[in-house]
Structures are given as C-alpha cells and as structure tokens.
Design goal:
seven-stranded mixed beta sheet, globular
Length: 635
C-alpha cells in the first residue's frame, strides 16, 4: 500500500497489531527523526518496562528521543514549534491520555488540552506520524476508570484524525487506509467509454478533466505547443510489437470540467504489476546460461516485467528522449556561462551534440521542451502558482502524447543554468538534506574548480530555505517557491507517464528532484522510474536513497543529464533480449540432440539495433484478447 503524499498521519491499531512497527517504517527514510515518547515511568512493572525497552531497541541511532510524560501540554508545544525539515513520530496517544487523566495533573481542563493538540497537529509544518490505540471496538470496560480512559482516548482519536490529512488502521499487521477515502469518478452517461473503464483504472480526484481538453488556467502564461519530435539521421520505426499491448492505454475515463486536468496531492495512479517482476526473476534462475546469470541487470528484467505486465518482458524498441530546457536566475546559476544552456538546446534540435548523437545511436527520438524561466529563489518565488499548474499539465500532456505515439520508454533529460543548485534546494526542503552536502563542485569550461561560484550557490540555497522556512512543504508550494519551470514540467511528465503505465529512465538531478516532488502528488510515480547512473553526483545519490532507486551502473559519466541513460540503454536492451530469447535448462534438455532451442515467446526478440519511433504509430496495435474469448476457444 502506498502512503506517499501525506504530511500528518495517524496510525490506529489494537494491542500487538503492528501499528508501531508500521509507523516506524513510514519515517525510515528520514535522515533524522524526533521520537516523542509519551509513556510514564514503568515503576516496578517489569512487563511494561520490557515493552518500553523493546521500543527503544528498535529505534535507529540517528533518532533522538524526547519524553513528554511529565507534562501533557508539552506534546502540543513540540508539534506546533517543529520546523518544516523535521520528522516527528509520536508513540503513542494512549500513553498521553493516561498521563492526562492521572490525578497528579488534576484538576485540569482536559478538553482544552485535547483541542490544543488537535490545533497543533493541524498547523504542524513538519512531517508528523502519530500512533494511537484503537480500543473502541472492544467491550465497554466494567470499571469507572476504564470507561473514563476509553471515552477520553476515543475523543482524542477523533480530534486528531480530523486534524490529520491521512489516517491508517492497522489490523493484524495489515494497514488499511481510512482517510482520505479512495473514490472513483462517476461514469458519464454521455460517453460510452466512461461507462466501462479499463481494468486497473486509476482513481483520480473528481475535479480532474481529460488531457484532451484545454488545460490552460485562466490568467496563466501559456506554455508553447509541444515541439516536433526529431530523430536525427535515423529512419522511422515500424509498428510496435504486440508484447505488452494495452499497458499504455488511458487508465481512467476522466470527467469533463472547464479548466481541464487538475493535478493535486492524493491522486491514485496505477502501480506496476506486483507479480510479474518476481516471476521474471524466478524464470531467470532457470535459464540455460553457463554462468550465474545477469547479476545486477536482473533488476532491469524485473522492472521491465512489472511495467509491461508479463514475466517475459520485451526490449524497449520505441524510446523517446524529452529534453527539458529551463534556466534559473540568481545565485543558483553562479559559475555558468550565459546562453550556454540555450546553445545546448539548439544543438539538440538540430540533431547535434552529445545527447542527439547518443539518441541517434540508440534509435531514440528526441524532443526539446522549453520550460518557463525561474526567478531568483533567494529573493522570492521561482514561479507563481498559475505557472506551476500550467507547467505540470504541460508535462502530463507530453507523456500522454508519447504514449499515444506508441513510445515504450521515456528518457528524461534536462539542461539549464542553475539546475543542480535548484535540485539541492528541493532535496533540502523535501528530505531534510544539508545543501552543502548535496551541492556538487562547480567546474569551469576549462576544467578548473570554482569555489567562489560554489559558495554563491550555497548562499542562494541557504537564503531561499530561510525565506521559505514557514511556507508549506507540499509539492506545488515547493515547485513554486524553489523548483521552477523545468522541475514542474519534469514532474508533470513523471505523473503523466505513471497514468499511462509508461516507464521512465532517469540519471540526473532534475529527474530525481522531480521524482521526489511527484511522490507527494502520487506516490506510485517513483515505482515507474529506473535510475541508470548517479554520475557521482551527491544530490542524485541522496535522492536515489530516499526514493529507493538503486543505480544500475557506476560509470561516473558527466555528459549532461540524459546522456548517461542513453549510454546505458543498449546494455539494458541486450539484457532484456537475452532474458526473453534464452530457453530454460529443462526446455534445452527436452529439445533433442541437434535441435535449435526455441524461444520462450511466440516471437523471438532480435539483437539488432532498434529503429526510432515516427511521429505516430503506423498501424494500430491489437489489444489483448478478452478472457471470455480465450475461454471459449479453449472449450
């Protein structure tokens, strides 16, 4: 179950239900956690002392523990004064209520104290997880003290659940989301497609509109129309094979509204097939190879199987590179040459330069996307809210267009002044990173290290974070305050690709920063991303660790964002082709002496260099055969 996109979360559960372990897993990726322990001193109760000791033993050494048992009101104070970069874990509210009802704290205005806690949770700037027992499902206690406790705890749970943006109930170790409730849009009577959405349709907020509608917000500066797709020095690609057909079909029939698609936190987009990946890895163990197998490239086969929905995935034949070009003004661009990013973008449009040549070698098409320029983040927001919304939807449309053209894999590339420092600012705001630790050294065109420019970038990021210290840390606000147009477009691409079940290959700071932001809008997006190489970049390494993305290679290339992915792409294709073509050992033994081993699939993937996509598919790929038809033929 994906729980990305939350800021304050309440975990409910019965005794020994696993609620504390689940809560701890939610903050396991944070660099530091402030653990707020509410239980009173166990005194001479050895069993209770053993429970507390077990909780302490589970906490990582990087976590700090703060006791609040001596003063119930202190919990609300700690939560309300937490900083945006903090991560808080409160375990649990049952212990807090016990202390609140203790005669030592009476007489007291318990109702006002509960209201203070709820208000603190509602206004909390940090990421906050609270654990609380759910005792309302048991019998009514037979003692006055027991009834007072259950009544008080029930009131606290209701108040805190109302203040939190997400509530989860853990039953027998299994989390069940209670808030926000998953809702599906009502089908439209005017559209036959809306009355029969495809299997696995995603749940999208009711305000969302179809990507085919005009999606420009009134008053927002329009983004340019999608530029033409270029494939330098490469002929057009034939129609895509039927393997995995239907996996990039629209995931839902979205209702019509005047403003078009609305991208907001809590979108339910599809996840990769959870069974196909493990099945593909199990199958690899049985292949007839002289050695031990594909090694680290098993991850590629598992990823491709899950995103294609088959245990025998095919190599990606149709690949599109989306080069997002957007500059950042101010200190984040210190040390860059004026106009250099625009020159790189024009090179790519003309089919020249590193990225275009690698795209031609890989048979991939290349599309340059211009994003709005960002203002200096140390002085004010990078973009306004309308520009962010327009850029997000523009990126979503680019992914939709690629899926409609038969593209099977997107490569996200970027070029622009100040992108590395901007990614560091986003990483500091969303993952609590220290900017100097994730800012790479600045190297001049002559190969010299420019420490003055590096310090200017650090100062710009520091000032921007200080300026926004009281701002909300939700995805749209981070893009507006710190991100800029290129990150907003890249985030929209990742979300649109997720909606169309289209995998994305990343390898640079803009891509991983966009993935960090997209997880707060739709947590499923990161599961459709594959990291080719971290390039030795500290921000990419840290973001990959937070996202759970393992780099496939460690080539430490520095050819520009997107170029590393294209360099690795032929290797990934070869691994997929080999995994699909080789027979298992059992099949080889049964094939007979002198017989050629047959392929596992009906069509054997070739090892020739794939050709690029054209502007659109030349034929219509047939959809998968319905289950009813297959059953009828079998009968």
């Amino acid at each position: 179950m994906s729980l990305d996109g939350w800021n304050t979360l309440l975990v409910l559960g019965g005794i020994r239900s696993g609620k504390s372990e689940f809560a701890e897993s939610l903050v396991a990726d944070a660099s530091t956690v402030r653990y707020l322990a509410t239980a009173a001193d166990p005194g001479d109760d050895p069993e209770w002392a053993a429970r507390l000791a077990a909780h302490r033993a589970r906490r990582p050494a990087t976590w700090s523990t703060e006791e609040t048992a001596t003063d119930p009101r202190r919990l609300a104070d700690v939560i309300s004064t937490a900083r945006p970069e903090d991560t808080l874990l409160v375990d649990d509210l049952g212990g807090w209520v016990t202390v609140l009802l203790d005669p030592a704290h009476q007489p007291a205005d318990d109702t006002a104290t509960v209201d203070e806690l709820a208000a603190a949770v509602r206004s909390c700037a940090a990421r906050l997880v609270l654990v609380s027992p759910e005792v309302g499902l048991s019998l009514v206690p037979t003692t006055p003290l027991g009834r007072a406790f259950t009544d008080a705890l029930g009131a606290v749970n209701r108040a805190v659940a109302d203040a939190c943006d997400t509530v989860v109930l853990v039953v027998a170790g299994q989390p069940c989301r209670l808030k926000p409730a998953a809702t599906r849009p009502a089908p439209s009577d005017a559209s036959p497609a809306a009355s029969a959405p495809s299997a696995g349709a995603a749940t999208v907020p009711a305000q969302a509109g179809p990507t085919g509608e005009s999606s420009e917000t009134p008053g927002a500066p329009p983004l340019p129309a999608s530029p033409p797709v270029t494939s330098p020095q490469v002929p057009a690609e034939p129609a895509a094979e039927a393997v995995g057909a239907g996996w990039t079909a629209p995931t839902t029939a979205l209702p019509l509204v005047a403003t078009g698609l609305v991208i907001q936190p809590g979108m339910e987009l599809p996840m990769p097939d959870e069974y196909a990946g493990p099945q593909a890895v199990d199958r690899l163990a049985s292949l007839d190879v002289p050695g031990t197998g594909l090694g680290a490239l098993e991850q590629v086969v598992s990823f491709a199987a899950a995103t294609q929905g088959t245990p025998v995935p095919a190599p990606w034949r149709s690949v599109r590179v989306l080069l997002v070009h957007g500059d950042h003004a101010g200190g984040v661009a210190a040390g860059t040459t004026a106009g250099e990013s625009a020159r790189r973008a024009e090179q790519a449009r003309a089919g020249q330069g590193v990225l275009a040549r690698l795209a031609a070698e890989s048979g991939a098409s290349l599309q340059v996307v211009d994003a709005p320029a960002a203002a200096p983040i140390e002085h004010g927001p990078a973009l306004d809210a309308e520009q962010v919304d327009s850029a997000l939807r523009h990126g979503w449309r680019l992914a939709e267009e690629a899926a409609d053209a038969g593209v099977q894999l997107l490569v996200l590339a970027a070029c622009g002044a100040g992108t590395e420092a901007t990614a560091a600012a986003v990483l500091a705001a969303t993952a609590g990173a220290e900017p100097p630790a994730v800012l790479a050294r600045v190297v001049t065109a002559g190969g010299e290290i420019d420490d003055v420019a590096w310090m200017a970038r650090c100062a710009a990021v520091r000032d921007a974070l200080h300026r926004t210290r009281r701002s909300a840390r939700n995805a749209v606000d981070v893009l507006a305050e710190l991100g800029g147009g290129d990150l907003a477009v890249a985030t929209g691409i990742l979300l649109g690709a997720t909606a169309r079940r289209l995998p994305v290959l990343l390898d640079g700071p803009v891509g991983v920063a966009a993935a960090l932001i997209s997880r707060d809008l739709a947590g499923q997006a990161r599961h459709w991303c594959l990291l080719a190489d971290d390039g030795g970049h500290p921000a990419v390494r840290l973001a990959a660790d937070v996202l759970g993305l393992d780099p496939l290679t460690q080539l430490r290339l520095d050819l520009g964002e997107g170029a590393n992915a294209l360099t690795v792409l032929p290797l990934l294709r070869s691994a997929l082709a080999l995994a699909a073509a080789l027979p298992s050992r059992a099949e080889d033994d049964d094939s007979g002496e002198g017989d050629e081993p047959g392929p596992v699939e009906e069509t054997e993937p070739d090892f020739h260099e794939p050709e690029p996509e054209g502007p659109g598919p030349t034929t219509t790929t047939p959809a998968a055969e319905p289950a009813e038809t297959s059953a009828a033929r079998a009968g």
